[in-house]
């Protein structure tokens, strides 16, 4: 049959060693126990197992849930109601849709779907073809990308809100009635069948993607509950999460010095970078206000790793302002698609304390993420943080062994530049100033005291 794949191909598609996949087969998680053949569905089953393992749920708990309730098969059917179908590379997608490879890449990044890798299915191709028709009709690619980002962000948030609210107000109330695991799933499904709306095809595409992500998270909650990792709570929607705030340390002076259009170009580059990194580390962009992003993560380790990745990638950008981040781990309340509570406020305040290139974290984050590979935490001591009654013990998270790059800083706009990116220089009393443009140089010369001269 066309959907039969080998163990070697399954390993290549999932990144999981063949030995581990063979063990999963013997445990009934992928493939057929009596046969060594695999199907396309096993790619998605393996990815769900990987997700559960990343969230700290052991193989034995996963195997027990699969044996008792066929959990993986159920969620694969929910996520792929028309079945798991062949996938295409970005290059193949470009050839099949008539788009350039670069346009396909921009589309893929804009949608925020990098968490499923750089392979596309038929739904993805249909959406790209719809985008191609819009481009052919005269819609600029820049406008299309912006629309796709809005649709993807909004509908992903809506899908998560729907799934999480269903879990809190339907599943949890049914669970409180003392139902068995099978009864609970059947009762939840009976209610769920009447709550899935029908929408226009272009909107439905992003809703499916958002729903798939939310279903995976919902699966983690179910298995974690059954494994005893999530104690009951008397407050609906109360959960532990890592909250990160990240922004550009000199975006305001950059906007004042270079104007809205240049600032918008910088923000577009930063936005793409933040979204890509968040997707790689199981994070989600909750909201964006100007250059500031609020991100949420299931635990502290990926939050710290993501913040460091954003810092490193931003520092590597040519002629770009520096980033800064603040991360806190604690209790939050999930309400109407958003996260609220003191933990959110603390994360925001910590970000405000960060300087150029700094990733500041609280003691709670350091405790939860201690031992994270390639990361060291440097204690900064107690700080009185504006808006908080108690002092905070802060740490700076750093990538071990990564030396900071020597870059000049434009005193007018705050842009950072490598030696070859400096457009103009000025020496005053033996001190050299570097500028990203002649315009910044002229502004400095007209009013040096305004810029620390």
How is this structure best described in words?
The chain is of the alpha+beta class. Strands 5, 6, 7, 8, 9, 10, 11 and 12 form an 8-stranded mixed β-sheet that branches. A two-stranded antiparallel sheet has the order 1-2. It has a two-stranded antiparallel ribbon with strand order 3-4. It is globular and about 80 Å long. The N and C termini lie far apart (73 Å). The model has no long low-confidence stretch (mean pLDDT 85).
General form: globular
Uncertain stretches: none
Radius of gyration: 24 Å
**How many distinct beta strands?**
16
Mean pLDDT over the residues:
85
Proportion of residues in helical segments: 40-55%
Largest sheet: 8 strands, mixed
Helical segment count: 16
Structural class: alpha+beta
Q: Distance between termini?
A: 73 Å
Strand content: 15-25%
Short description:
This protein has helices spanning 7-14, 18-26, 40-54, 59-69, 71-79, 90-97, 101-111, 122-136, 141-175, 181-192, 201-226, 251-280, 300-316, 342-353, 363-369, 438-446; strands at residues 4-5, 38-39, 88-89, 119-120, 238-248, 284-289, 292-297, 323-335, 338-340, 359-362, 375-383, 392-399, 408-409, 416-417, 424-428, 431-435.
């Amino acid at each position: 049959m066309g959907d039969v794949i080998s163990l070697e191909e399954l390993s290549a598609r999932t990144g999981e060693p063949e030995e581990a996949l063979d063990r999963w087969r013997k445990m009934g998680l992928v493939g057929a126990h009596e046969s060594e053949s695999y199907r396309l569905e096993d790619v998605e089953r393996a990815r769900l197992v990987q997700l559960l393992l990343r969230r700290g749920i052991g193989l034995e708990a996963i195997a027990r849930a699969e044996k008792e309730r066929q959990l993986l098969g159920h969620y694969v059917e929910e996520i792929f109601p028309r079945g798991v179908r062949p996938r295409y590379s970005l290059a193949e997608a470009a050839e099949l849709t008539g788009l350039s490879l670069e346009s396909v890449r921009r589309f893929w990044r804009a949608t925020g779907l990098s968490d499923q890798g750089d392979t596309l299915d038929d739904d993805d191709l249909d959406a790209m073809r719809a985008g191609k028709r819009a481009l052919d009709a005269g819609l600029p690619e820049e406008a299309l990308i912006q629309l796709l980002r809005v649709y993807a962000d909004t509908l992903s948030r809506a899908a998560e809100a729907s799934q999480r609210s269903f879990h809190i107000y339907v599943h949890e109330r049914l669970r409180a009635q003392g139902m068995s695991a099978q009864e609970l799933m059947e009762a939840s499904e009976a209610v769920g069948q009447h709550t899935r709306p029908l929408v226009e095809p272009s909107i439905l595409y992003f809703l499916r993607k958002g729903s798939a992500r939310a279903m995976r998270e919902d699966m983690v909650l179910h298995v974690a509950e059954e494994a005893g990792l999530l104690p009951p709570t008397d407050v609906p929607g109360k959960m532990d999460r890592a909250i990160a705030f990240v922004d550009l340390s000199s975006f305001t002076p950059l906007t004042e010095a270079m104007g809205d259009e240049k600032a918008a170009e910088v923000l577009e580059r930063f936005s793409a970078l933040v979204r890509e990194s968040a997707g790689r580390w199981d994070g989600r962009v909750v909201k964006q206000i100007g250059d500031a992003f609020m991100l949420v993560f299931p635990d502290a380790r990926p939050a710290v790793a993501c913040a460091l990745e954003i810092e490193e990638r931003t520092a590597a950008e040519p002629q770009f302002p520096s980033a800064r981040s603040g991360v806190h781990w604690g209790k939050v309340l999930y309400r109407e698609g958003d996260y609220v509570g003191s933990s959110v406020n603390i994360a925001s305040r910590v970000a405000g304390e960060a300087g150029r290139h700094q990733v500041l974290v609280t003691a709670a984050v350091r405790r939860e993420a201690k031992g994270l590979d390639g990361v060291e935490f440097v204690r900064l001591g107690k700080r009185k943080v504006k808006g908080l009654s108690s002092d905070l013990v802060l740490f700076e998270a750093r990538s071990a062994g990564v030396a900071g790059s020597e870059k000049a800083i434009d005193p007018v706009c705050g842009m950072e530049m490598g030696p070859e990116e400096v457009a103009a220089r000025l020496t005053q009393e033996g001190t050299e100033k570097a500028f990203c443009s002649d315009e910044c140089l002229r502004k400095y010369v007209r009013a040096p005291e305004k810029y620390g001269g």
